[in-house]
Amino acid sequence: MLGSKKKEEVLPVNEALLNVITPMGLEIKRNSLVIGENLGKVYGAIRYPQKVDMGWLSKITNIPSTIVSVGITPIDNGALISAISKSIVQQRGAADSAKDPLTRQRAEKAAEDGERIMQRIDQEGETVAMMSLTVMPIAQDDANFTKVCRRVESAFNIQKCKVRTLANLQKEGFQSISPTYPANSTVDSIVSRIIPMSTFVGGFPFASSGYNDGRGYYFAKDSNGGLVILDTWERGNDRTNSSFVIMGVAGIGKSTVVKHIMLSEYMKGTKILCIDPESEVRHEVAQQIA
Ligand SMILES: Nc1ncnc2c1ncn2[C@@H]1O[C@H](COP(=O)(O)OP(=O)(O)OP(=O)(O)O)[C@@H](O)[C@H]1O
Ligand SMILES: [Mg+2]
């Protein structure tokens, strides 16, 4: 923690937050949940398209009346390449021995897709990660619930993704969506997919649309070269809070941006609480402040 706290402050209870993390009651059914006054259903994303457009992820993570959780785990490129390489050999073998044209074509296509991704990782230095995405539509009555569920399914279909209800895993799915629970291995085994990091990073709208408050912090350039300058304290329209996430491929400068913001905010007198499991900030920023 940076900044010293002189005396214990008594903070008022945040009732809205309390309602979300401790609902009045929780009933778990095979294919749905009753969470306090709401009905919910946890879906897992089980298929993504080969090619995606800029901002594709924002279209499936900003559906009204849904709560979404996206997990990203870095994986070892070397292990992945040998796994893909093995699978290409298998698919080529299957294509050669296939008796009907449909099976042969599918196996050839799978081998070609494998070769394409192997080339991106091995020769073009693309980093990959394991991504898992769960989404939970919520509504207060049956009619709206059915509508929201349909909207989720069609929003995923439009992006050529596919969701599946986590049957008999609603409890585990609900836990995986909750920010207070660690990842669940059963849910992960169903929803984890390998994805190039750049596909994930380009999935959110900052990459495609200009964002400039005219004051605040310079974050990046968008795909058209426009500056992304954000005043994180700005309120109004869709800006209801100051939460933000900084994403980027390894070594691109994420930590540097965060450290700059922390220092500037510290100068302005903002109280800073830093959760820093790797003690990265502790060593660097604390030294500069001291
Ligand atoms: N705007 C910049 N111009 C030049 N060098 C930079 C810039 N931002 C960061 N760097 C340098 O790039 C290196 C990596 O930066 P940083 O550690 O912030 O990246 P990161 O995205 O947090 O990496 P990781 O994914 O490993 O956490 C550092 O040596 C940093 O000093
Ligand atoms: Mg970093």
Verbal overview:
The protein has helices at 15-21, 56-61, 77-97, 101-122, 142-158, 170-177, 185-191, 197-201, 254-267, 280-289, and strands at residues 26-28, 33-35, 38-40, 43-47, 66-74, 128-139, 162-165, 193-196, 211-212, 217-221, 227-230. It is an alpha+beta fold and 290 residues long. It has 3 domains: 15-73 and 129-196, no CATH class; 77-122; 209-289, no CATH class. The chain is globular and about 75 Å long. The two termini are 13 Å apart. The mean pLDDT is 85. Magnesium ion is lined by residues 254-255. Adenosine-5'-triphosphate binds at residues 248, 250-256.
Poorly predicted runs: none
The small molecules bound here are: adenosine-5'-triphosphate, magnesium ion
Helix and strand succession? HEEEEHEHHEHEHHEHEEEHH
Q: How many β-strand runs? A: 11
